[in-house]
Design goal:
The structure is a homodimer.
Chain A lengths: L8 H20 L4 E3 L6 H5 L32 H11 L6 E3 L4 H15 L14 E6 L3 H9 L3 E8 L2 E2 L1 H10 L3 E6 L13 H8 L9 E5 L18 H7 L6 E6 L11 E4 L2 H14 L5 H11 L2 H29 L6 E3 L8 E5 L4 H10 L2 E3 L16 E4 L6 H25 L1
Parallel strand pairs in A: 1-12, 3-4, 3-6, 6-7, 7-8
Antiparallel strand pairs in A: 2-9, 4-5, 8-9, 10-11, 11-13
Helix pairs in contact in A: 1-13, 4-5, 7-8, 11-13, 12-13
Chain lengths: 427, 427
């Protein structure tokens, strides 16, 4: 194969014709494939089934502190769950609040509370003329949906191989007191799978924000979601770094077992300074009497400790790895020689991020859909779903079976080729 | 025994001396008893233990619609849980959203959403100068805590034997467009155990609120919590009545299994018009991907249907009834003849509400505490914890064992007597 860029117009036309024929053949198959969301596949979920047996009617449903977990109470999590979630995040139990089943819900509630009640005694955001958030882009669509929902202005910050462009972050955060936060997925980022460098983390911790209520929203969703044994990314501990830099209250860390056990029936947690957590507890006590403590206990009984979690994640990696390898192999074989797209090769997380030639992403996604392959919407990785260059597509390999995935990927690369040829022909 | 009101000053002094001696004897026992919160006792929780066995690793964790409940998705509840919760509330599944573990959390979120985003296209409450709520009093302290937390002005409405004073409710709601809601516990109310009469429900449904975004917050926490077989209170269906009266969107109904299965590990739900629920879903989809569907399935598998729930509640009543009977017997024997307090005799729910002579409630609760008996704080049943007459005390008989309860009750009535004697002596 030759780079499309080296082809003549005639050759491109020929190629297009051949591609469209293949495309019609695929369409005729009436496939229904989904590479859109970062959902575990059934084989991953099967790995957690023994968790359904660890608590039975024969067990005493009490915490190590003796509390009857069947009754009301325990606002911020049972001690053993704080320990387990703290170990996953890399912080002490006293820096952890264990919540219900969804870290997204914690993030939403954190923004909602800041809107109505402010942060650390500062003016509630709903009383301010303007509230802004920095959004490293491409990023996680559900983060952007929360800030958009609350009318918070989103400012794009480009991602680099080391994390967000920290020169831009620093300049904006330190000069504009209407900037109240930044969304980060610091490890195996969504969608690129980038892990922030030590320098990036240190620069975050050393920020001197113009706003006293600026907070880093550190969504460590993929903290332990490695793909390859011996090729794990490591990241500095942001809570420690913030403390060292004299900014102990500047970060909120979020985490869950949604992609460890059962999404929707997992355990979510937040980590921060004790001062921040005390403020949050004073609001939580109005909102609820407590989260599902029996499910917290179920997780602790199943994993026992962080070693149990890590063993489990190795089994998950064994299921997911072949899927990533399949996607990357197809991209390498089918697209790389043509010089029409670039993509990431992450060591963990749930996504591969692909950039098409300018102006092709929407076309690719819509052609995929027409052929029965659902991709994440083009633009979804950008604030306001607005990818000006129309290049970024998020590939989520985990949910389909490997067989389905290969089929879906072949259709996807075909669509990338068609859109690229058409783009080149139109230039 | 003679009414204290018939005693001479000398006789009262004698009585006081004798009572204080008994009080010192109790204090010397160093007891630790709790009649403060509406928490199930251990024997009630034991009744739900078989629920821990209905879903195991051998079961297929799918809904009747075929959805794999181990994965992400299903924002508003699995179909069979909607049916079950709908049957408990008395509405159709399409009028139900099933949430996580806490109806209090749903109520909080409902107020929070109204603050930041408004109701049905009206101005968000946080943008208004003044937002008010009506608070039938005595009422539930956690309701009042939510409205106070959001800076919503609370207006007391006296309770009658038929529910809130509807003349006052109607006059206020129909004349003041800053009144956006009213807190109701319509069945076996907290703390009085009063069930709203048909006339009260119909008058609620027929309100013509000045505010387009006025909503009735109908916390049906004790919908199925009867104490006596054959003496169940019945209540009209508020959703039906609102629809009949041309106010289909005026009510939000809340409910949970917290006092059916395990508090903290139950299932909570909201019922309302489809129009209201659509509005709520459009916000929920930003807040979460979904609640714990496996726990929803666990509840459905355990109860099978509403009949299973009602059978279970009969067993619960068998555990709770003797406790209520013990409390009422002690009050009848020890307090009734003295003419120093009045109290309610509910057919269901979790509380007995007692009114002391004016200015005595705080004294009684603090004396109880000193003798090792924790009661709900005096004033807790009033907005801003402000019981101007200082008379109302909420008695929660369910949590202690019957033996402990009897001990606690004897100390409680002793304190009521002492406070009353002192009050009479001071007049």
């Amino acid at each position: 194969m030759t780079s499309y860029r080296a082809l003549s117009k005639e050759e491109l036309e020929q190629e297009k014709e051949s591609l469209l024929k293949q495309y019609e053949d695929y369409k005729a198959l009436g496939l229904k494939l989904d590479m859109s969301r970062g959902k575990p596949g059934a084989a991953q979920l099967d790995l957690s089934m023994p968790m359904m047996d660890v608590l039975t009617s024969k067990d005493i449903l009490s915490s190590e502190s003796g509390t009857d977990l069947r009754n009301y109470g325990v606002l911020d999590g049972i001690p053993e769950a704080k320990k387990l979630m703290g170990d996953i995040i890399g912080v002490k139990p006293e820096n952890v609040i264990v919540y219900g089943n969804s870290s997204l819900n914690i993030m939403y509630d954190t923004i909602a509370r800041s809107m109505t009640h402010g942060v650390a005694g500062n003016t509630p955001w709903c009383k301010l003329d303007k509230v802004k958030f920095l959004c490293p882009t491409p990023g996680y669509d559900r983060h952007f949906a929360i800030t958009e929902h609350f009318g918070i202005e989103m400012i794009k910050v480009p991602m680099t191989q080391d994390g967000p462009d920290m020169d831009m972050v620093q300049k904006l955060v330190e000069s504009d007191d209407s900037i109240k936060g930044i969304w980060c997925v610091p490890k195996y980022s969504n969608p690129q799978g980038i892990t922030y460098s030590d320098d990036t983390v240190k620069r975050f911790a050393a920020l001197k924000p113009a706003a006293a209520d600026f907070r880093i929203f550190w969504d460590n969703a993929y903290a332990i979601h490695h793909l390859f044994n011996g090729k794990n990314d490591e990241i500095l501990n942001i809570l420690d770094e913030c403390e060292k830099a004299g900014n102990p209250d500047m970060v909120y860390i979020f985490c869950s077992t949604s992609k460890v056990t059962f999404p929707g029936s997992g355990v979510a947690a937040m980590a921060s300074s004790v001062k921040n957590l005390d403020e949050i507890r004073s609001q939580m006590t109005i909102q609820t009497i407590g989260h599902d403590k029996i499910n917290q206990l179920r997780h602790v009984k199943y994993f026992k400790d962080i070693n149990g979690v890590m063993e489990h994640m190795k089994k998950q990696a064994d299921v997911i790895r072949p899927k990533f390898e399949a996607v990357l192999q197809i991209l390498d074989e089918e697209i790389a020689p043509l010089d029409i797209a670039t993509w990431t090769k992450p060591n963990g997380g749930y996504f591969v991020s692909l950039d098409t030639m300018k102006g092709c992403a929407k076309k690719v996604v819509s052609m995929c859909k027409e052929a029965g392959v659902v991709m994440t919407g083009a633009g979804a990785t950008h604030p306001y779903k607005n990818d000006e260059d129309d290049t970024n597509i998020r590939i989520a390999p985990t949910y389909p079976s490997t067989e389905e995935l290969i089929k879906a990927c072949k259709i996807f690369v075909l669509c990338v080729k068609i859109a690229s040829v058409e783009k080149l022909l139109s230039e």
